[in-house]
Amino acid sequence: KSRLAQQKERTLGIIKPDAMSKVGQIIDAIFQCGFKVTQLKMCRLTRNEAFQFYQEHQGKTFFECPDVSNLINFMTSGPVVAFELMGVDAITKWREVIGPTDSAEARKTAPMSLRARFGKDNTQNACHGSDSVASAAREIEFFFPSVGTVRQNTAKFTDCT
Ligand code: RTP
Ligand code: MG
C-alpha cells in the first residue's frame, strides 16, 4: 500500500426522472468506473424538496421558467434514484463520467458520457453530480440524513476501504 494514501471523497449522484428506464445501465457504468455505492434510494421529490435541493439556482431563468425547461417540474415529474458514491477524487470523477450539462453538447464533446448516452437536452440530462465538497456534504445529508437512519432502516457503510 502506498505511503501516500489517496484521499477518498464522497459525492451525491442522482438518476433523474428522464433516465429511470436506464437505471440498470447507469448503475453498471458506476461500478465499471470503480466507484463504491455507499448509500442508495429511490424516491419521488415533492416540489418543496426539489426547490430546497436546487436552492443555489433560485433566480436563474431555468429554475422557474414557465416552459418545459422548468427544473422543478422536471425533477418532480417522476421518481429518481439518489446515491452516495465513494472513491478517490469522486466529485470530479463522477462529473466527468456524467459529462457536460447540455446533453447535446455532451454528444459532441464527450460521447461516452452518461448525459451523451442517456440525456435529452439542457434540462433533461439524465444525471446529477455534486459540484464541490461543500455541495456534496449538503446534498448527501439532504437525501440521507444522518439522524434517524435506524428508523429509516437504511444500510450505511461507515468505512469502505
Ligand atoms: P447538476 O447540478 O444536475 O449535476 O448539473 P450541472 O451542475 O451540470 O448544471 P447546473 O448549472 O447545476 O444546473 C442544474 C440543472 O438544471 C438544469 N438546467 N437547465 N434550461 C437550462 O438552461 C438549464 N440549465 C440547467 C439541468 O437539469 C441541470 O443539470
Ligand atoms: Mg450543479
TrEMBL record:
GO cellular component: axonemal microtubule; centrosome
Binding site for ATP: K16, F62, R95, T101, R115, N125
GO molecular function: ATP binding; hydrolase activity; nucleoside diphosphate kinase activity
Superkingdom field: Eukaryota
GO term, biological process aspect, one: GTP biosynthetic process
Keywords in alphabetical order: ATP-binding, Cell projection, Cytoplasm, Cytoskeleton, Hydrolase, Kinase, Nucleotide-binding, Transferase
Record-annotated active site: H128
Cell compartment(s), UniProt: Cytoplasm, Cytoskeleton, Cilium axoneme
Protein family membership: Belongs to the NDK family.
Protein name, entry field: Nucleoside diphosphate kinase
Organism: Dreissena polymorpha (Zebra mussel)
Organismal lineage: Eukaryota, Metazoa, Spiralia, Lophotrochozoa, Mollusca
Full-protein interval shown: 83 to 243 of 379
